[in-house]
Amino acid sequence: MTELNRGKIDPFVAVDAVRQVATFTLTSTDMREGEPLPAAVYDAASGGEDRSPQLSWSGAPAGTKSYVVTCYDPDAPTGAGFWHWAVGNIPASVTSLESGAGNPSRGLLPSGAITMPNEARVPAFIGAGPPEGTGVHHYWFNVFALDVESIDIDPQATPAVLGFMMRNAVLARASLVATGEYAPSR
Which fold has domain 3-180? Predict the structure, then answer.
């Protein structure tokens, strides 16, 4: 992918320097690689619905026993990026999530899945909301194929801790990167 599509910041450079992992395919009926996010995927303050997009994945390697799904914005003006969503312990039999699965009240995640608190400390998907004057942001939707059935983690831990806890279990990673810009109301 080009820098234009995925941005100047690749959040996996340091991870890949330690251990390269295989890749597989991530697609969505709601968004496309390198294209703007749909309005519904923005936060309420930006005129959106805080609705997580539909995601489907295929081609995970043999030996996959579970998945982790995340959404991360490395372009957020925080010095550490912004975690929008992180879900662990998704069974290997699940290869898609419906639009809106990031809203826990909808009950669309599989049994046993754990949603970590996002940057707002809420265990749910929080939509894009780039601040004014910060340019184009790149939203990295990732699915990690793991060689363990579950990660033993405190459900109140951060997505960064989840990344640390799963680091040795990752067999492969699939990414889809969409863009977003400041807009006070869509």
Answer: Phosphatidylethanolamine-binding Protein (3.90.280)
